[in-house]
Design a protein that fits this description.
It is found in: Nucleus. Keywords: Activator, Nucleus, Transcription, Transcription regulation. This is Mediator of RNA polymerase II transcription subunit 18. Pfam families: Med18. This protein is α+β, with helices and mostly antiparallel strands. Helix content is 19%, strand content 43%. The chain has one domain: Hypothetical Protein Pfu-838710-001 (Beta Barrel). It has an 8-stranded antiparallel β-barrel. Strand 2 and strand 3 form a beta hairpin. It is globular and about 45 Å long. The relative contact order is 0.22.
Length: 232
């Protein structure tokens, strides 16, 4: 019974009821990028702005889609994420994450979207994903650091891909870009008012200027409409 975890249920129940958030949450997000050679400068800025310490990560992420039967142009994004061990062995714990379509709120200074995360244990995750009807769009590896400032999460990571699908040793991994991705976010309960948190996130993001410009990227518009010609 090695899969069982010994937990003092009575002792942990009050803490879980206070600190846990609803299963379905809202997420405020901003994205940016920075040349990899300037990442040390960004880390020094974050060290002065954020809580003490940071956590390094090396993860494998796969993005799947579940297309609607009514319209093949509309799809639901599902992401699977697993963490590599330091010796590049793979754990069988996966984060299964649903990302909803952002809210069409032009006045909000950040992206607002629904997000559902759960933890799955499986030694054959691809079979499980196929059974759900999911099709993989793309995959990549991320390696970087996680910082926090209260309930704000800041991640900067370099993106790499495997030149031989299914092989993730150092000889098979190739860098995608000479830039690093920067993401800052706040998670909120589903029914919470998001505008105060979005403004807090925007204020924090402005403190990263001019090293990194954090933007509200309209990435979802490509799924629903074609580009409109610029006005003269």
């Amino acid at each position: 019974m090695e899969n069982l975890i010994d937990i003092d249920e009575e002792a942990t129940r009050p803490q879980l009821s206070i600190n846990s958030t609803p299963y379905q949450t809202q997420e405020c997000v901003l994205y940016g990028s920075i040349f990899s050679k300037h990442v040390p400068d960004l880390e020094r800025r974050l060290a002065g702005l954020c809580d003490p310490g940071c956590e390094e990560f090396f993860e494998h992420e796969m993005s799947f889609c579940l297309r609607s039967l009514a319209s093949s142009d509309v799809k639901t994004d599902i992401k699977l994420r697993r963490r590599f061990r330091t010796d590049h062995q793979i754990q069988n714990y996966w984060q299964l994450r649903y990302i909803g379509v952002p809210e069409p709120d032009q006045k909000c200074p950040t992206i607002i979207r629904k997000e559902i995360s759960s933890l799955v244990h499986s030694s054959d995750m691809m079979t499980y994903a196929k059974a759900l009807g999911l099709r993989m769009d793309y995959e990549y590896m991320t390696q970087g650091k996680l910082w926090t400032k209260g309930n704000i999460k800041i991640l900067h990571s370099s993106l790499t891909k495997s030149i031989r699908p299914g092989n993730y040793d150092s000889s098979s991994i190739k860098s995608i870009s000479d830039s690093s991705l920067v993401e800052i976010s706040i998670s909120l309960p589903e029914s919470a008012e998001y505008m105060p948190a979005a403004k807090t996130l925007r204020d924090f993001a402005d403190q990263l200027m001019p090293l990194c410009s954090m933007e509200k990227v309209d990435y979802w518009k490509k799924m629903f409409s074609t580009a409109t010609p610029a006005r003269k």
